[in-house]
């Protein structure tokens, strides 16, 4: 259960794993961040420290609270090093079924029988991920949103075997880290990923067709619908490689309305994934700040 003595493991130190580990450590939970890539792991820990230091500068976090959170965070390159008494493990590895199944299988071999094993998948089947486990009833989707330290929602995704005890305990975990949770029956793309994928894909079709520039498409959503970020900005933040993977999956399961825009395919083939590569729809400097006037103008094919 989610008392302050509970231990949490986060597997995957990418953008989402970093944010999720910060969410738990900042609330005083002993948090182990795991990644086989030592360089990525060190970068993630530095990033979490940076978020905490930024909170101190803004007056949102005291120096003592930041120090406590940093002390709560540890790292490892092996899932097998997870503490056996951890109450919750969340995997945030790449959107690949075989990789996720390997992680949850390894986790089940280490953790106690009543530990919750959660997946942050944005599109894959929780039921399929859990199918390789002896106790699939304790597997649930915990779909966080980026940036985790600012976004308040968590989609709790129910697989076929997810039981009531797992649901209740996971809802308590969300409350403990000050997040609002909703329950979603498993379906391709859940609720938000499905809507976001369609919005981002349509925005790219509009850009490709020359309907408007990238800046104006994003401005339309921010100013016309009060979205905090435009769909093309969000795609650059999430990564167009990830977006393409999700769209391909939704296209195969839900049909033609999710067919990926050719411009997304072209950008991914060119390595223009977004912020993480310094170039997507927009260009970014070494600090990850968007370069003014760098957005694509449209009519590109």
Short synopsis of the structure:
With 301 residues, the protein is of the alpha/beta class.
Describe the structure.
It is built from 11 helices and 8 strands. The protein is an alpha/beta fold and about 300 residues long. Strands 3-2-1-4-5-6-7-8 form an 8-stranded mixed beta sheet, sandwiched between helices. It is globular and about 55 Å long.
What tags apply to this protein structure?
single chain, 301 residues, alpha/beta, eight-stranded mixed beta sheet, 11 helices, 8 strands, globular
Side-by-side strand order of the widest sheet: 3-2-1-4-5-6-7-8
Mean pLDDT: 93
Residues in helices, as a percent range: 40-55%
Structural class: alpha/beta
Beta-sheet strand percentage?
5-15%
User: What is the CA-based Rg, rounded?
Assistant: 19 Å
Q: What gap, in angstroms, lies between the N and C termini?
A: 54 Å
Per DSSP, the total helix count is: 11
Shape label? globular
Question: Quick one: biggest sheet?
Answer: 8 strands, mixed
What is the H-and-E element order? Answer: EHEHHEEHEHEEHEHHHHH
Strand elements, count: 8
The low-pLDDT segments are none
């Amino acid at each position: 259960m989610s008392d302050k003595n509970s231990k949490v493991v986060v597997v995957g130190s990418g953008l989402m794993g970093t944010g999720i580990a910060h969410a738990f450590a900042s609330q005083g939970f002993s948090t182990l961040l795991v990644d086989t890539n030592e360089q990525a792991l060190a970068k993630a820990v530095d990033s979490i420290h940076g978020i905490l230091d930024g909170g101190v500068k803004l007056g949102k976090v005291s120096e003592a609270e930041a120090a406590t959170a940093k002390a709560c965070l540890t790292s490892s390159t092996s899932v097998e090093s997870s503490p056996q008494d951890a109450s919750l493990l969340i995997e945030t590895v790449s959107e690949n079924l075989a990789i996720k199944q390997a992680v949850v299988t390894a986790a089940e071999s280490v953790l106690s029988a009543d530990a919750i094993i959660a997946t942050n998948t944005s599109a894959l089947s929780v039921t399929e991920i859990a199918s390789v486990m002896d106790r699939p009833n304790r597997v649930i989707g915990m779909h966080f949103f980026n940036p985790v330290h600012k976004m308040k929602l968590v989609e709790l995704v129910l697989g076929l075997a997810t039981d009531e005890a797992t649901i209740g305990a996971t809802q308590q975990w969300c409350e403990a880290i000050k997040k609002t949770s909703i329950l979603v029956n498993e379906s391709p793309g859940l609720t938000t990923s499905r809507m976001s994928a369609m919005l981002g894909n349509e925005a790219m079709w509009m850009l490709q067709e020359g309907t408007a520039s990238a800046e104006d498409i994003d401005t339309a959503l921010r100013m016309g619908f009060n979205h905090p970020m435009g769909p093309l900005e969000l795609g650059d933040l999430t990564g167009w490689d990830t977006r393409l993977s999700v769209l391909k999956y939704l296209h195969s399961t839900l049909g033609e309305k999710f067919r990926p825009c050719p411009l997304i395919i072209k950008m991914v083939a060119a390595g223009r994934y977004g912020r993480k590569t310094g170039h997507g729809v927009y260009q970014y400097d070494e600090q990850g700040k968007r370069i003014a006037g760098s957005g694509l103008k449209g009519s590109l094919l």
